[in-house]
């Protein structure tokens, strides 16, 4: 069976950066499933699979199309139950929903502001124009002003990781002794920052930094297959 994962990229199609795509890539690796990556730019998304989605990741798994990283993880768990679990039961699914909410409401907005010009500058011209128009409409200000506000986020970013830091005092992964989808959720956000921005958001000697390095090493170092910015 050929699985195809549509992944958001900039001008360099070998450097997919979407945090949601990285969640899905590690979920597929976790399950030991082969897949091909189909890189797309922002303005190509509405045209893939005959307009099947407005977002990526989009996974074609045989005849099935699944979008949204959490829905893809649920699909993989239900379709391949004999392979390593991504959630470890219903409680794990509920915990992952909480982690997803924390990550997307706390980490994503900060990384988005910090790296907004880095993302813009890595896009094809047509995607660059779309990105500027859509983000300036979202934020109600020029990208440059958003980036200026993001400088303050750099100073406070580490403090926002305290819930993760606290948990890592007791176990090496959010999933316990090994990773689960909850780990991939937070990893996706930090991998996004690592790939698009040269701004260092994690400090040496931090428990979160050690955890992130362990995640980069998972699945034969798959997270390191794209180098840091």
Automatic annotation (TrEMBL):
Domain GST N-terminal: 16-84
Glutathione S-transferase UstS-like C-terminal domain span: 96-198
Top-level lineage group: Bacteria
Record protein name field: Beta-aryl ether-cleaving protein
